[in-house]
Write a structure and sequence with these properties.
Shape: globular
Number of domains: 1
Number of strands: 6
Mean pLDDT: 86
Radius of gyration: 16 Å
Strand content: 35-45%
Number of helices: 4
Distance between the termini: 50 Å
């Protein structure tokens, strides 16, 4: 079996089956599509190599009660995949939250994911679902950065 991402359709199939299940998220089917030297970065962490990346996926699986991914838009050109997504998740004692974000993925010459950069506003999307914090957080952000 070839673990090569060659089309937008293959990517969407792989990505959405990680999350959209009735059980815990499962990365086992997609991890072979990542290069051993994967570089991953998001709002929270920077990871280099499969030795660190795989445990990160396991931690997210352990913490998440429900995790669903909707790919809103996707561009696949050459060795770059750029997609906009909506991810709904819930943790043990907290309400279901939707995060809105985008990811840029680079494929190596073998069609494996060598770099992934996720962009999202973690705290803004979470605080928007907590009534007494939502307005305060947005006012603070506007005052300081807007």
């Amino acid at each position: 079996m070839s673990f090569r991402i060659e089309s937008k359709e293959k990517f969407v199939e792989l990505w959405t089956t990680i999350y959209n299940t009735e059980v815990k998220p499962d990365w086992s089917h997609i991890l072979p599509y990542y290069d051993d030297n994967i570089y991953f970065r998001d709002t929270i962490q920077e990871i280099r190599g499969m030795k660190e990346f795989k445990p990160m996926t396991e931690r997210l699986t352990e913490r998440s009660q429900d995790l669903k991914m909707k790919i809103v838009h996707i561009l696949f050109e050459g060795n770059i995949i750029f997609f906009e997504w909506e991810m709904s998740l819930s943790f043990k004692r907290y309400p279901n939250t939707t995060l809105f974000g985008a990811s840029r993925i680079s494929l190596n010459e073998d069609g494996k994911i060598i770099e992934q950069r996720d962009y999202y506003d973690l705290w803004g999307d979470i605080f928007d679902n907590i009534p007494f914090l939502a307005n305060r957080y947005r006012k603070f952000m506007k005052k300081r950065f807007g």
